[in-house]
Amino acid sequence: MPFTSIIDELSNRGFALQKDFLREDMTHDLVLECRRREREGSLTPAGIGRGEGVAVMEGIRGDQIDWLDPGQAAISDRYLATMDELRQALNQAFFLGLEEFECHFALYPPGAFYKPHLDRFRDDDSRTVTAVLYLNHDWQPEHGGEMRMHLAQGPLDVAPLAGSLVVFMSGEVLHEVLPTSVDRLALTGWFRRRAIQPF
Length: 199
Ligand code: OGA
Ligand code: MN
Known about the structure:
Elements: H1 4-13, E1 15-18, H2 24-39, E2 44-45, E3 64-67, H3 74-94, E4 100-108, E5 114-117, E6 127-134, E7 147-151, E8 154-158, E9 165-169, E10 174-177, E11 184-192
Antiparallel strand pairs: 1-9, 2-3, 3-4, 4-11, 5-10, 6-9, 6-11, 7-8, 7-10
The chain binds N-oxalylglycine and manganese (II) ion (MN).
The site of N-oxalylglycine has 9 residues, from strand 10 and strand 11.
């Protein structure tokens, strides 16, 4: 796995973009897995916040999600294994103490978006590094749905093209998903430090 460019880009400019992070056969199988979950009714409207405070607010985000757990499908296990290698590489390079990776499929139906935000909750700062893999094989610019990062040097749009992985520090990069005109599929994930126990 060529993680060196991810590490280099992260340390040089605060985010990394790797256009061919996963081979097409894998992204294809991940699309099938996401569509299977959709057919079975496993995708549910995403909320804002965590735990009992989760609220669905369509004015902020309109995606439908389903979490990955070990043992659900061979392809999702493969993805989790790949991301665990990346977790170890990030720890070796930056001494972040990342202990786990959590991720979900996200389907943005036509018209959906996610307003500008940071990936860090007010009451829980364990999300440390964000990693989003895109799964749109036929994406065209007129489809929209780019992920816009608001960087010090200005906005930067990332096309949600199948196989592209974007990585950034969860609490530092303000970002949003622009409205999409077609179904937009992604695997959105976070490397976490040990959560601070409230009790
Ligand atoms: C998120 C998010 C970005 C994307 O789910 O927090 O910002 O490109 N996703 O899907
Ligand atoms: Mn986000």
